[in-house]
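User: Show me a protein chain along with its predicted structure.
Assistant: Here is one chain, sequence first, then structure tokens.
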Amino acid sequence: MLAASPEGSGQYVEALFWRATLAATVEQARRDYLRLAVEFSTSPRAEDALLRLAQLEFSRGDRAAAKRHLERLALEHATGASRAQGAYWMGRVLLDEGALAPACASLADARARVAGGDVELSNQIAYYARPCAALQRAADSARADSAVRADSAARA
């Protein structure tokens, strides 16, 4: 199909996407997804290609590359269908980096964007957001202590 379609046509882009999806090696998939994201960045498959590139890079342990793809996904496809998944994966990358507060913000964004019927993604978000509850409790406690100190200072 790829050879039979004019380069740049919808059929060509679709064939390139499926060749990447069914690639025999990670490097072949990466090359085709990258080509979709760069050369055909306005195609309907560019959003999926960026998400899959990020997932490939994450699985290879290259968090910096995964982050770049996810940032680009958020920037170029802010209202796209993959936005919830992108926020979820960004949360995972940030958790791996030890950046708990930004990770929790990203996971909260993912939770807000996830489709109601997407139980699988909702469960994944909930699983990785478990450390965020402790962070929220600490922030709430700090705000309460600050309010008590302010109230005591005002009375004095």
